[in-house]
Backbone:
């Protein structure tokens, strides 16, 4: 450093030049695509763009139309139901599985492999398999009926009222293994002495989990929560494969609304407005988390 | 530290020495074990069921499917559905099966994986060892960007690719995968390179090695495990992608997932469930093989992916 100063200070921009050149792809991606692209979409959501983006600003027209559209309302409701249930079930099931796996069991690797393999599969594959299993003519419903319970009805994919639960079953099958893995890693991070102390005090196991271990795992839970939540907002391929949004519009989701309006209905303005709403949803999830995670650390 | 804590310790060790080591031996069939393994087995069955149904269905003929139930093993094993799914299933007008999508996916996944890892590893290296003023700002934007729904950024990218004249081509899709793989991979490599002993880097600097020389001669050979983790992450991720495939390519170059969806969910014609399931299995085969072969590294990859942000 001091040697450099003697031989004429290189221009500031040229210092560390290779590193800067090597980082050009990162800088372009960050600034042009992530920052620029997002701002562009938000700005153009206030235009009446149809087939091509046009800078003809119409205020909040697109948003008013969006929130008047029954399909968007259904999408939001579905996302809310799917999201809330996914969060609850994947955390509960994931935690129970993780706790069971943490009992120094045999064949731990085998069980882990089994619970996690669906996560390696695409949502398209997941959706198509469950479409087949839930097929009322051949799947679970017909099998149960063949066993003698002839009035048994379970056809989530053909019943508009419960179709989102059919999607939920598939989504949980795909994602709980990941939650289990993350929480298991968290459980392994708990000090063994805590368990010993709880046992010495005669606290029953479930109480130890509920009142000692789970509160200690708060950071792991929050991270897992954020991962599940940001996955929920993006849910798209699963619905496309399993139900194509049907029957009717009963299983539409926001991400599909965006795609359909941008690339099929040629109504770009609506697509931009809908995608901006998705961005807002994510921001509502992420900002409190980022505040807790990073803002909190500075205070302490 | 305090006397009250240290005092009982000798007594405890003395007792531990008198007793046999390890956990208290339990009878193999205690009530607790039955509950424990019973629950795990039931859960494992639920997770395995779809895979089993896929395999069984794909090996049956259509008449048997219409008669039987989806869980029963095939009476007569046939590989015809597999052959048909691979070579002659129809999507729209062309009837050359999933093989086309498979090769498209290979041509998408291989360059996308290589290029995204190359770019991201150099980024991570620059961030870890050659940090320049403002580098962290770009990195923060990148990481925050990982949480933005893709739908928000898709259309601007369409415009950029169209201006470059590569919208709808494989090249365009490779660039898109490189862009969206960047946040997580950069984080992965940055953390890994930061954890390497700094003396190595300093020694190389004193010996006069430059940016690229240190990267190629020291960092790259020392970091093979993390490159494997990144490869697993990218191969499965890119192979399983649907959204980018459908947005950024034309029907001739559709990746396998998109073609699979078109085959199974096409409205015309009689539904051939056995062919559909064979096609589904074929599409899932690549990530499944990667998963089963890589084992613990896969877990490490998703754990690394999980701590993003």
Residues:
């Amino acid at each position: 450093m001091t040697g450099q100063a003697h031989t004429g200070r290189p221009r500031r921009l040229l210092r560390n030049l290779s590193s800067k050149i090597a980082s050009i792809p990162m800088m372009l991606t960050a600034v042009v695509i992530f920052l620029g692209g997002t701002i562009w979409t938000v700005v153009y959501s206030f235009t009446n763009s149809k087939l091509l983006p046009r800078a003809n600003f119409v205020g909040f027209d697109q948003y008013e139309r969006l929130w008047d559209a029954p399909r968007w309302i259904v999408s939001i409701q579905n996302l809310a139901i799917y999201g809330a249930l996914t969060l609850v079930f994947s955390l509960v099931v994931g935690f129970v599985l993780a706790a069971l796996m943490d009992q120094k069991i045999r064949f731990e690797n085998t069980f882990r492999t089994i619970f996690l393999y669906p996560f390696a599969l695409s949502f398209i594959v997941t959706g198509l398999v469950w479409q087949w299993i839930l097929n009322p003519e051949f799947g679970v419903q017909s099998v149960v009926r063949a066993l003698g319970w002839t009035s048994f009805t379970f056809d989530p994919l053909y019943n508009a009222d419960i179709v989102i639960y059919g999607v939920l079953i598939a989504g949980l099958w795909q994602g709980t293994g990941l939650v289990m893995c993350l929480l298991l890693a968290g459980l392994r991070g708990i000090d063994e002495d805590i368990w010993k102390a709880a046992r010495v005090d005669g606290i029953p196991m479930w109480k130890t989990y509920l009142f000692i271990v789970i509160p200690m795992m708060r950071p792991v839970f929050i991270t897992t929560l954020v991962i599940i939540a940001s996955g929920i907002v993006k849910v798209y391929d699963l619905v496309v494969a399993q139900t194509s949004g049907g029957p009717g519009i009963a299983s539409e989701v926001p991400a599909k609304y965006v795609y359909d309006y941008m690339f099929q209905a040629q109504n770009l303005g609506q697509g931009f407005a809908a995608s901006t709403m998705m961005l807002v949803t994510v921001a509502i999830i992420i900002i409190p988390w980022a505040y807790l995670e990073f803002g909190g650390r500075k205070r302490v | 530290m305090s006397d009250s804590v240290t005092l009982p310790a000798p007594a405890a060790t003395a007792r531990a020495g008198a007793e046999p080591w390890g956990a208290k031996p339990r009878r193999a069939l205690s009530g607790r074990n039955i509950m424990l393994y019973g629950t795990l087995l039931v859960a494992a069955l639920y997770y395995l069921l779809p895979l089993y149904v896929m395999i069984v269905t794909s090996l049956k003929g259509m008449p048997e499917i219409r008669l039987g139930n989806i869980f029963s093993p095939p009476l007569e094993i046939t590989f015809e559905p597999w052959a048909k799914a691979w070579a002659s299933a129809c999507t729209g007008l062309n009837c050359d099966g999933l093989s086309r999508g498979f090769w498209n996916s290979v041509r998408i996944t291989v360059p996308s994986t290589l290029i995204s890892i190359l770019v991201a590893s150099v980024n991570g290296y620059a961030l870890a060892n050659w940090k320049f003023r403002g580098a962290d700002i770009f990195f923060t934007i990148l990481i925050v960007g990982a949480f933005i729904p893709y739908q928000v950024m898709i259309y601007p990218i369409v415009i950029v690719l169209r201006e470059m004249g590569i919208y709808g081509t494989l090249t365009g899709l490779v660039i898109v995968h490189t862009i969206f793989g960047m946040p997580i991979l950069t984080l992965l490599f940055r953390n890994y390179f930061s954890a390497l002993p700094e003396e190595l880097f300093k020694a190389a600097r004193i010996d006069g090695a430059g940016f690229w020389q240190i990267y190629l001669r020291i960092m790259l050979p020392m970091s093979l495990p993390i490159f494997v983790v990144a490869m697993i992450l990218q191969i499965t991720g890119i192979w399983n992608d649907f959204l980018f495939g459908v947005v950024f390519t034309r029907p001739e170059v559709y990746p396998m997932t998109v073609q699979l969806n078109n085959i199974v969910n096409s409205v015309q014609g009689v539904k051939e469930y056995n062919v559909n399931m064979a096609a589904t299995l074929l599409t899932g085969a690549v990530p499944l093989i990667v998963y089963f072969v890589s084992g613990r590294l896969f877990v490490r990859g998703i754990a690394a992916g999980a701590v993003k942000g």
